[in-house]
Amino acid sequence: EVQLVESGGGLVQPGGSLRLSCAASGFTFADYAMSWVRQAPGKGLEWVSGISWNSGRKDSAESMKGRFTISRDNAKRTLYLQMNSLKAEDTAVYYCAKSHNEYYSDSVGDMDAWGKGTLVTVSS
Fold first, then answer.
1. Which tens digits make up the pLDDT trace of 107-122?
2. What is the share, in percent, of the chain residues with pLDDT greater than 70?
């Protein structure tokens, strides 16, 4: 059974930083691209960042470029999201998602497994 377990969320002040982690099990982590997707209160799912199977390709949504960095450690079967310069509008539940193949997509329809999410609240 595929399992994705996020951690690292919490309350942070504007301008602060957080590092999210996602522990994966139940599949060959190194064979698949992974993404972070978020859902702000009252809004739909928004792709945040994606990384290919070997970290050779990675990207983030335009509003997060320069602030968020995705990475992975295949030996540890763990996905990360380093978030810096956080803004109030970054408040959301952040989900770790597995792609159906080795290359990431910014379409949530191309993701076939999801974690339960971790809440990030940016507020003073």
1. 988 999 999 999 999 9
2. 100
Q: What is the pLDDT of residues 71-93, one digit of tens each?
A: 999 999 999 999 999 999 999 99
Closest CA to 14 of 100, 120, 104, 108: 120
Query: What DSSP letter does each residue of the chain carry, written as one string?
Result: --EEEEE--EEE-TT--EEEEEEEESS-GGGS-EEEEEE-TTS-EEEEEEE-TTSS-EEE-GGGTTTEEEEEETTTTEEEEEE-S--GGG-EEEEEEEESSSS--S-GGGEEEE---EEEEE--
Query: Is there a contact between 61 and 106 (Cβ–Cβ < 8 Å)?
Result: yes
